[in-house]
Amino acid sequence: MTAAQALCTRTPTTCEARTRLYRDGELVTEGFPVQDIARHLAEDGTTVWLDLLDPGSDDLAVLSEEFGLHPLAVEDAVDDRQRPKLDHYDSHLFLNAYAVRLDTGTGELSTSEVAAFVTKRALITVRKDDRMHLDALVERWDQTADQAVHGVSWLLHGLLDHVVDGHFAAVEVLDDSIEELEDVLFDDAPQSKEVQRRSFALRKSLVQLRRVVLPMREVLNSLLRRDMHVLDDAMVPYYQDVYDHVLRVSEWTESLRDLVSTVLETNLTMQGNRLNEVMKKLTSWAAIIAIPTAVTGFFGQNVPYPGFQQESGLIVSVVLIVAIAGGLYLGFRRKGWL
């Protein structure tokens, strides 16, 4: 029994597999049994794609015998939360990246880790969960089927382009969310608590996105190095395009992080300004209210004074209260305190 046959002895729920076979740039078949991979690779001009969903260490150990995979790469493919990277080994490359998805309602970013073994005639993708949907990736390959003649370079480009486009879509949604947050920030009705909650949620998502985006520059840069002889020359411009997208997402992410910080600082400043306005109004009204208290207290003395126990005294006290309080009110209004 071959190593690929041994792999297939595991139950489908433990190791779900998906396969595709290309020959001389044409799609020949897909969904074929994993045990047929070795036979197909023995044929000239064939390229194979194999996808494994949440495989165990035993699954990948068997694959390492079939494809000559390095034990360290197999270990990284099994372990969770590896950083995005590209490792070079004698017989293959090992790639680790993250597909992302943003919840537009909550602003929460979810990531899906995907590893890939890149050999001369096979691309083996390892997904840690099913949140990265393969239908969009397969559709991308079908749309660029005229480039299938470039084999693994073309398959790998489709995978990277799909992942980076997901990063681009996420940062676009985050940008729109921050613009909506700015509108809420300057709304006539203060919503400081809502602004703070959404700001922290967006900032958290941007930090997560930055962690998976920034290392992708190094990954693409390594693939584009001519001395590595990894890519077909015809595919280099397409990888350069993906690299440009990575740079744009990286710069966009950095600018949005600064913008969210500015929103938080502006919100705190506006809170301080509103508090100052409230304090000025309270102080102004306290000064106005103090006038009747002072005047009535003076005229309430139980010692004789001009107008004591006379109607004229009442009139004078009322006139003083109205005049002084009115003068203070007009003065505060003129200064914008009321």
From TrEMBL:
Subcellular location: Cell membrane
Keyword Transferase (UniProt): no
Membrane disposition: Multi-pass membrane protein
Primary localization: membrane
InterPro entries per UniProt: CorA_cytoplasmic_dom, CorA_TM1_TM2, MgTranspt_CorA/ZnTranspt_ZntB
Similarity comment: family membership: Belongs to the CorA metal ion transporter (MIT) (TC 1.A.35) family.
Protein's recorded name: Magnesium transporter CorA family protein
Organism of this sequence: Rhodococcus antarcticus
